[in-house]
Amino acid sequence: xxxxxxxxxxxxxxxxxxxxxxxxxxxxxxxxxxxxxxxxxxxxxxxxxxxxxxxxxxxxxxxxxxxxxxxxxxxxxxxxxxxxxxxxxxxxxxxxxxxxxxxxxxxxxxxxxxxxxxxxxxxxxxxxxxxxxxxxxxxxxxxxxxxxxxxxxxxxxxxxxxxxxxxxxxxxxxxxxxxxxxxxxxxxxxxxxxxxxxxxxxxxxxxxxxxxxxxxxxxxxxxxxxxxxxxxxxxxxxxxxxxxxxxxxxxxxxxxxxxxxxxxxxxxxxxxxxxxxxxxxxxxxxxxxxxxxxxxxxxxxxxxxxxxxxxxxxxxxxxxxxxxxxxxxxxxxxxxxxxxxxxxxxxxxxxxxxxxxxxxxxxxxxxxxxxxxx
Length: 374
Description:
Oligomer: single chain
């Protein structure tokens, strides 16, 4: 009978993104299984941080298991070596690793999930994706999935030091089919002013443009990752010198993106996410430019919103050019946000005393770095 009631409760749940209190309830019911007790701050307003497990595998190449196959089975043939994360270990730039996570799932029939790198992970240029058994896509967890989760980790610009419990990815859960639409964005923008720009470009998402305009004295328009920099411990906050790892970008108006270089830029518009909704940066149309933007796509309820102590927060853009040099112009559209309702009002929002690092941000590197002083 308890199992029947549990199924009925999920059938009656409204469509939308699950808020923090539902995620805690899912952990208690065993829908989300944790190898260790939840850590402080692990449950975010509309997402759950995922933690690295005890072992890592260096593999020859990235892969998807495909239907009827498990990640563990593929690792038997693709692994180069296995190593412990108990005392911390180095993940070298340019290599590919698979790490079983402490969290696993036993989802109800109507609940699916999607994963993304955490903001700090994306800003360190750590290419991170989540893999499930039988998966045909990265970062997508099908309705009713039961099984383990794995992180594929490939640092690009910097080698990193990580350990059991380190959090590089986050996962968001959804009840029913996606509800995101341009109609939702238009209605929200009319009532909430989702971006600071007077004219909202809404077409398969809310457009954001890049800011390469003149900045206040001493403020660059962006940063370019230096090659062959030192090791970064992903769990140490506010200890690194910016100029040891980044080259400030001072030119204004336009920027030539060099192939295989990584850039941190900022949106021209300040963004707001109401507490009733969550947002996501979707992959940008490659037909308008040979570049990828924004590894970390989740914007929690309250981001840049007055409910979380924000007054509009610019989106930080993680940009990498593909194959050929590409000229980026000030004000060029570089990404789009989609908004989706939560199943219910969350009991906490981004920035509301929960250790949020990027509320009211402008151009900002990851939390691992000291404030930039030119």
